[in-house]
Amino acid sequence: MTGPDTRHTHLAALRQRIEACTECSLCHTRARVVPGAGNATARVFFIGEAPGRKEDESGLPFVGAAGRVLDELLAGVGLTRSEVFITSILKCRPPDNRDPLPEEVAACLPYLAAQVELIRPRLIATLGRHALAIFRTGVTIGEIHGQPFRDNDYTILPLYHPAAAIYNRRLRPVLADDFAKIPDFL
Ligand code: SF4
Question: How far apart, in whole angstroms, are the C-alpha atoms of residue 185 and residue 122?
């Protein structure tokens, strides 16, 4: 069993590798790499899509308006950022926040897989359709949000992206209801 200190050390080493990455062309346009942040022994692991402008400036995940929504949703189930781990599929911002390209996802996914394997969370919560597509294709987020499923060793909980609740206020209570399922897994 890997202890918390060892996990923390391995995660820090992985972070350094990610911050130095030039595996796809986004390394030319990013300001900062955004490897992710949180607890090395987190029981819940959130996956977003990619850094936006504020994340690119700060090097931290979910620091803009969507981040505030995420913080409120976490607080609603008694969690703080220090207890969870938050990252995204891509660790560098796509120009103009365009969708990730398949070759960018392919280049970056090994880092996400390594983070998951180091942290070994009890629950992986995907935020939005792109993160869901890593684990399941052929279904929409609207069809399976809030419905957990197994993928190899992990339980996946598909959630809407917090940014969706900014543009569509009716999704906010839906997100809150889906977040309310998280403590069942912890
Ligand atoms: S998006 Fe991922 S693969 Fe591309 S340069 Fe950044 S860290 Fe490397």
Answer: 7
Q: In total, how many domains does the chain have?
A: 1
The CATH number linked to 76 is 3.40.470.10
Rounded mean pLDDT of the chain? 96
| Domain range enclosing 145 | 4-185
The dihedral through the CA atoms of 1, 148, 73, 12 has a sign that is positive
Q: How many angstroms does the Cα of residue 32 sit away from the middle of ligand 1?
A: 11
For ligand 1, atom 3, the nearest C-alpha belongs to 108
Pocket (CB within 6 angstroms of ligand 1)? 18, 21-24, 26-27, 33, 90-92, 104, 107-108
Encode pLDDT of 39-56 as tens digits. Answer: 999 999 999 999 999 999
* CA nearest neighbour of 90 among 29, 40, 41, 136: 29
- Which of the listed residues 15, 87, 90 should we mutate to test ligand 1's pocket, taking the one with most ligand atoms within 8 A of CB? 90
